Amino acid sequence: MKLIYDKSVEGRRGVTLPQSDVPEKKQIPEDYLRSSEPELPEVSELDVVRHFTELSSKNFGVDTHFYPLGSCTMKYNPKVCEEVAGYEGFKNLHPLLPQLRGGGVLTQGALQVLYETERLLSTITGMHEFTMQPMAGAHGELTAVMMIAAYHKSKGNPKSKMVIPDSAHGTNPASAAVAGYDVVSIPTNESGVMDIDKFKEEVDDDLAAVMLTCPNTLGLFNKDIQQIASAAHSVDALMYYDGANLNAILGKYRPADFGFDLMHINLHKTFGTPHGGGGPGAGPVGVQGKLVDFLPISRVVKRSDGTYALHYDCPNSIGYVAPFYGNMGVVIKAYTYILLLGKAGLSRVAENAVLNANYLMENLKDFYELPFDRSCMHEFVLSASRQKKQGASAMDVAKRLLDFGVHPPTVYFPQIVDESMMIEPTETESLEKLDDFIAAMKQIAHEAEENLEVLKKAPGNTPVTRLDEVKAVKELDLRWRKT
Length: 483
Fold this sequence. Notes:
The structure is a single chain. 36% of the residues lie in helices and 10% in strands. It is α/β, with parallel strands linked by helices. It has a 7-stranded mixed sheet, with helices on both faces. A 3-stranded antiparallel sheet has the order 10-12-11, covered by helices on one side. Helix 5 runs parallel beside helix 11 (328-364), helix 6 packs across helix 7 and helix 11 crosses helix 14. The model is unreliable at 1-15 (pLDDT under 50).
């Protein structure tokens, strides 16, 4: 008797049928049948549950540990957002279901969520329209750069270069280069922002756009932003806003009001949806009015009868950038988060994120180098250069933090700061947790002077201790390739 794949109720209940009793079209070919029973361990359900529960407790995550990963905004993900995204009416939809009439009633709610999320993001940022299709921040960047290219091409002036600060996220120059632009990197000045004099030297008729994060990856706001926008617009260049750090300005200022023409938003950073672990993200792109015609298709529209539909008649569109409508589950979670907090709540996000970052910075700047000693926004960058002189690197500090139950901050980025450690506490951490982090960082600074060996061997109390990372890269342990 063999186990037969059977979709009947009996099959789902584990009933086995002799091969001869199964219709021929359902029989499994002999070549694919086992010749002997599989050797499977006999393990009780209790042991299995305990095993995987123990494994899960060894993982680092926002639900279990402080996660001050700078530039990534690893904030807490409210469980109500997960619950809403799991509603039967959302999770069981298929993107090819009819939009209207008949079966269309099934998709109207999803289309409404997409439409209303676009409206909410437009209100928050000042942009006229959004597309929800891009499936990550970098995907949103590329989508935006493609629209920049389409805009200039439509005016008969394709232009050739893109200006980007040297402190930018690495995906900025990558996206510009993929789209065919020459990237001009502008150095950071003594205030920690793009050198405006060096920037002005690059403002000419070949300038297609300026890509900026504001506040930047150093957590610093650029007070010259309107002057930069004015100079760019004088040669018909566009201002692109990398929205990765939007967490710092929610409800306080809108990028459009400072002269930005288009932007992307990381829903998985700013609006409480999961981030990291290779899971789905979302990078919606918003544009000012002059760029609306270039948005990707399809676009969600609201008809005069109150129903929602997908619109494809956009002759100047850059076309499809994603299958269907992007990562729908992520959009639903962000939609829920925005409605949950409202205008006042979103403003408090920025207030608390900035307060928490400055609290940490002020308490740690006497123990580590602070390359730009000025008030920060939602994140800040310290340097372990002082500890490096004692023999401890930023990587050693990061590894040692694991022993305190803290996920390390981003290290060695931005690269313009030696031994950099980019720290972002977000708005969701308590004062007690921040104080614990401060105490850990102070102890590590002390150990760099008095007990260096502890740092060089850290972590010491994690399931896996210090790895030889160079060897790990050179000698990959690819289990799937083993026979």
